[in-house]
Amino acid sequence: MSASTYESFSLPVLEAMACGCAVLTTRNKGVLSYAEDGDNCLFIQTRDPCDIARKLLSLQEDTALFTRLCAKGMETAARFSWVCVSEQLIAYYRNLASYRPI
């Protein structure tokens, strides 16, 4: 669970997904590029302990939801592996190198 109100990318959330954890996180800008409520995480309201408790209980009671969040989180994290990111970076640089000077 991450109750942070601001993150630039929120690597801890992505690391938790990579470990196969069901993730609860706030809807901060850092996670919005990869987190999807109900798909690979559950969004919680900042400073709302009742909402956090409801979401935690939903994970305990709904095993299908728990299993889906864990699996989808691992799929999400795989897109950000060192191998994937380095391949994207190499492709980007190759594309830049292919341009002719003006």
From TrEMBL:
It holds the Pfam family Glycos_transf_1. Its EC number is 2.4.1.250. The gene is mshA_127. Transmembrane segments: none annotated. Keywords: Glycosyltransferase, Transferase. The keyword Ion transport does not apply. The lineage of its organism: unclassified sequences, metagenomes, ecological metagenomes. This is D-inositol-3-phosphate glycosyltransferase. The keyword Oxidoreductase does not apply. One of its GO terms (molecular function) is D-inositol-3-phosphate glycosyltransferase activity.
